[in-house]
From TrEMBL:
SUPFAM superfamilies, A to Z: Periplasmic binding protein-like II
CDD domains: PBP2_mlr5654_like
Endpoints of the signal sequence: 1-23
Compartments in which it is found: Cell envelope
Keyword tags: Signal
Record has Signal as a keyword: yes
Name used for this protein in its record: Amino acid ABC transporter
Main location: other
Protein family according to the UniProt entry: Belongs to the bacterial solute-binding protein 3 family.
InterPro entries per record: SBP_3_CS, Solute-binding_3/MltF_N
PANTHER family: ARGININE-BINDING EXTRACELLULAR PROTEIN ARTP, MEMBRANE-BOUND LYTIC MUREIN TRANSGLYCOSYLASE F
Pfam families: SBP_bac_3
Species, as recorded: Pseudomonas neustonica
Amino acid sequence: MKQYKKVLLATATALFMSAPAFAETLRIGTEGAYPPFNLVDSSGEVVGFDLDIANALCAKMEVDCEVVTSDWDGIIPALNNKFDFLVASMSITDERKQAVDFTNPYYTNKLQFVAPKSADFKVDEASLKGKTIGAQRATIAGQWLEDNMADVVDIRLYDTQENAYLDMNSGRIDGVLADNFVQYEWLQSDAGANFEFKGEPVFDNDQIGIAVRKGDPLRERLNTALQAIIDDGSYENINAKYFPFSIY
């Protein structure tokens, strides 16, 4: 009997030592309303470029991950209690760095105007004078308009990018300023068929990062995983799924 107990104890110890002490689960925060980067599909699943990148990072870190959505306006405060890292096409800014830490950029964007194809829409101040321009609230596009065009155009800020497009489609605003790659996606859709880019990008170094809580060592783990998916080609494969050009 003593020998039998010893065998059971040895087996149990071996099983315990060969398996992880616990399975780490991290929560990915995102908006779910910013296609093609993050959106909720017809089945209710959150999908998009951001989520593909986040899931690839989780695989490299060998952790389980689950997705949590949040309205854009409150997404940084929600990082403190609703999720562990934020992958939502968030621009790295000095103001946001006061509240969160960012990883290295996982892509770089530009800001560009979109307006109806039929519109005589030039992007110099004299031509924009008196026009009504939309942007999503609490974004670098909205901030750029407020910093550079507050005394030139009537600025309308929206809770989602989609609502800005809806107002432009209905003629309530003259144009929209937003990230180039989001605009690119929308212009390929039926809703964007009668619209086009206007002028050159007004800002071309919008670096996008993953946000974590201040001082969280998860930042370095994510940076290591990001470099790994770049090196092994996973990033390039995800990029090609959404864009016919590199956005890194």
